[in-house]
Amino acid sequence: MEKKKIVLKLELHNEKTKQKAMKNVCSNLGVESVSMDMKEKKLTVVGEVDITNMVEQLRKLCHTDLVSVGSPVESAEKKKKKEEPKEKKDSNHESYGNPAYTTIYYYDPVYVEEYPSHCIIC
After folding, report:
1. Angle between helix 15-26 and 51-59 (nearest 10)
2. Order of strands across the sheet with 31-37?
3. Cα separation of 21 and 56, whole Å?
């Protein structure tokens, strides 16, 4: 079996049904990534998955249509082509992940044997 990108259109009515569908898809063997577009109500699954079994399980929850099946490599190349014209951001203003500003917390445990006056039972 080879790696595939599967796009499904689901008719979801509420958040609970969405969570059930995501959990159902994630439980299948071979699933590498799952993403959901709530505007278009499309579920995208990438991995080595049995499509018929997955669609059959989802149809028990809600109405499911198979939109497309393809290789994930082609879609990744299309995304790269679309993202190329974007401008690069200034790297001078990046302050996230700077080790000089991280806070380190120390925890010093107190043992009962060191303070015999403290009673555990009382």
Report:
1. 150
2. 31-37, 42-47, 4-10, 64-70
3. 12
Single pTM value for the model = 0.58
Q: Between the CA atoms of 34, 43, 45 and 50, what dihedral angle is there, to the nearest 10 degrees?
A: 130
Q: How far apart are CA 110 and CA 116, in angstroms?
A: 12
C-alpha–C-alpha distance, residues 119 and 103, integer Å: 35
Six token digits for residue 98: 């700077």
pLDDT tens over the chain, length 122 residues: 788 999 999 998 888 988 999 999 999 888 999 999 988 999 999 999 999 999 999 999 999 999 999 888 765 566 666 666 555 554 554 445 555 555 555 555 555 555 556 556 65
Neighbouring C-alpha atoms within 13 Å toward the C-beta of 13: 3
Cα separation, 36 vs 74, whole angstroms: 19
